[in-house]
Amino acid sequence: MTRYFITFEGGEGSGKTTQIARLANHLRAEGQEVVTTREPGGSPGANALRHVILSGAAERLGVEVEAMLFAAARADHVDTLIRPALEAGKIVLCDRFHDSTRVYQFLDSDLDPGTMDALERAALGDLLPNLTIILDVPASIGVERARQRRSDHSPDRFEKEDEALHERRRQAFLKLAEDMPERCVVVDGTQDEETVAEEIGALVDDRLGAARLEALGQSLGAGKTGR
Ligand code: TYD
After folding, report:
1. How much distance in Å is there from the Cα of 142 to the middle of ligand 1?
2. What is the CATH number of the domain that holds 222?
3. Scanning 67, 83, 96, 215, which has its CA 20 to 30 A from the CA of 120?
4. Residue 227 binned pLDDT confidence (cut-offs 50, 70, 90)
5. Residue 163 sits in which domain range?
6. CA distance readout (Å), 60 to 40, 63, 110, 171, 184
C-alpha cells in the first residue's frame, strides 16, 4: 500500500480528465488502490459550492470571496475525502488543486499574497501533493479543445475568458514548475493521448518506487533505534 497524493493541473482542454482516468487504470492494473477526484467539488459540501462558483453567481462578490469559496470547498474535500483516503494507504489522483487557485484567482489580481498563504493553510493544513503533473498545451489549442468538448453546454464562468488570459495562466503554471521542480513536473499535452499516458505512467511508477524505498528506509531506521 502506497499512500501518495498526485494532483493534475493545466489550462482548459489540457487533457487532465482523460489522463487521470488512464493513470488510475494503469495503477489499478498494478494492484494499487486508487481514488480519483476533482476540484472544485469532490465531496458533497464542495459540490454544493462548485455550482455557486462555476455558475458565475459569486463573481460579483469579487475575486477575494471567490478565492475563499474555492478554499472552503477545498477544506471540506480534504477533510472528508482526500485525507481519509491517504490515511487508508490509498493513492489519490485529483483533477486540479491549490495550484489552480494560485493561478486562476491570484494571477493579475491585486490580492495580497499573504491572503493566498492564509487560505492555503486553512484549507490544507500540512497536506501538500507529493507530485503535481502540469499538462502543458498552448492556450490556442486548449481553448479550441474545450470549445469542441462543450458543444452540448454553454461555457462556464472561466471558459468564457479570453485566450490571452488563458495563455498567461499557462505561463503561470510553467513558472510554478520552475519554482518547485521537486513537486511539479511539466508534461507536453500536445503529444498524442497514448504517448502522454505512457510518459505519466513511467514518471509515477518511478516516483512511487522512490517513495516506497524511502518508507522502507525509514521503517528500518526506526527499527534500529528501537532496539
Ligand atoms: P471544470 O469544469 O472542472 O473544468 P476543467 O476541466 O478545466 O478543470 O471547471 C473548473 C474551473 O474552475 C476551471 O476553469 C478552473 C477553475 N478553478 C479556479 O478558478 N480555481 C480553483 O482553485 C479551481 C480548483 C478551479
Report:
1. 14
2. 3.40.50.300
3. 215
4. very low
5. 4-226
6. 18, 8, 16, 26, 33
